[in-house]
Specification:
125 residues; Glutaredoxin; 23% strand; cytoplasm; disulfide bond
Length: 125
């Protein structure tokens, strides 16, 4: 079963990624807008999350799935947002689903397409 970790904010993300040991298994990261009372401020994130979660069963059973809230709308929209500036993430949109350390990345409405999400979870290159 995929192991999920939930993180909130850039500093928690960096701290976690600096210490995580996936034991060679894939790491998938889903970046989304913060939730307030269980609902994200980001409409695209609201639509994409159930699709990403439905397709997660295609991932390696021992993979890590890191769920990261990037901040409130004001934080995310700031051009100096750390998630945007970090060369490892280079986020331009939320939601974004990526395979850590690889070229596989889906953003915004791409995360709403089950076939693309499945492909990201099953692609090994």
């Amino acid at each position: 079963m995929v192991i999920e970790h939930k993180l909130k904010g850039y500093n928690n993300f960096v701290d976690f990624m600096n210490t995580v040991d996936s034991k060679g298994k894939p790491i998938y990261i889903y970046f989304t807008g913060d939730k307030v009372d269980g609902k994200s401020w980001c409409p695209d994130c609201i639509r994409a999350e159930p699709i990403v979660r439905q397709q997660l069963h295609h991932a390696d059973a021992e993979a890590l799935f890191i769920y990261v809230e990037v901040g409130d709308r004001k934080t995310w929209k700031d051009p100096q947002c750390s998630f945007r500036k970090d060369t490892r993430t280079q986020l331009l949109q939320v939601p974004t689903l990526m395979r850590w350390g690889g070229p596989q990345k889906l953003a915004a409405e791409q995360c709403e397409k089950p076939e693309l999400v499945e492909m990201l979870f099953t692609d090994e290159d």
